[in-house]
TrEMBL record:
Keywords in alphabetical order: Methyltransferase, Transferase
InterPro entries: Methyltransf_11, SAM-dependent_MTases_sf
Domain Methyltransferase type, chain residue ranges per copy: 18-108
EC numbers, comma separated: 2.1.1.-
Gene this chain is encoded by: ycgJ_3
BP terms from Gene Ontology: methylation
Originating species: Acaryochloris thomasi RCC1774
UniProt-recorded name of the protein: Putative methyltransferase YcgJ
């Protein structure tokens, strides 16, 4: 969240932002504080949306499905999603919806810890108790392209090295071994950015 907000702070057009999987609303509140004049969010959990409304009272929030976004086409300059899209059983449908609601030239950012190249997070489905979408960074890039986005960048967010202190690790369903925790820190979060083309070629 910190890395993404720092980069978006340099955006010249900070009109409207949509966050998929808004959770507690913390990102929306910080986005509004950074200058976005309109902030919207969607989450599958009514409880999370209620919490987010308290955290970000200025935001327009909806309970719903990423594959069926309740906003008109070309509504947003920016769409973001953090630690949420792997819960979606139809990621390509969700990404096509992202492209639909973005304005031409609009920007999409996807940040996730759980992806195939992150060896330390392989136990997460067991911890959750259900399957979640497992794709490699290359596969996610391909899906963004299939959805119609371009200028796609593929990078990592690496956490500060001090977080790798063994004393900060305790066994859990998320990180059952110290090696899994250290691998998680070393691999970092996957951060993809793509843009809706300014002009769409004829189909």
């Amino acid at each position: 969240m910190t890395a993404l907000l720092a980069e978006l702070a340099g955006e010249t057009n900070k009109s409207a932002l949509l966050d998929l999987g808004c959770g507690t609303g913390s990102f929306l509140a910080q986005a509004a504080a950074s200058g976005f004049s309109r902030t919207c969010g969607i989450d599958a959990s009514p409880k999370m949306v209620e919490t987010a409304q308290n955290t970000a009272p200025e935001a327009e929030l909806q309970v719903g499905n990423f594959a069926h976004l309740p906003w008109p086409a070309a509504s947003f300059d920016n769409v973001t999603t953090m630690e949420a899209i792997y819960y979606c059983p139809e990621p390509l449908a969700a990404l096509k919806e992202v492209a639909r609601v973005l304005k031409t030239g609009g920007r999409f950012d996807l940040v996730i810890d759980y992806y195939q190249d992150s060896s330390g997070t392989s136990s997460w489905p067991e911890g959750l108790g259900f399957e979640i979408t497992s794709l490699s960074a290359t596969q996610w890039v391909d899906l963004l392209a299939q959805a119609g986005l371009e200028k796609i960048s593929n990078r990592r967010i690496i956490r500060p090295q001090q977080e790798a202190d063994p004393a900060s690790w305790k066994p859990s369903v998320w990180f059952p071994t110290e090696d899994s925790y250290l691998a998680y820190l070393e691999d970092g979060a996957l951060w993809l950015t793509g843009y809706l083309p300014s002009s769409v070629p004829n189909q």
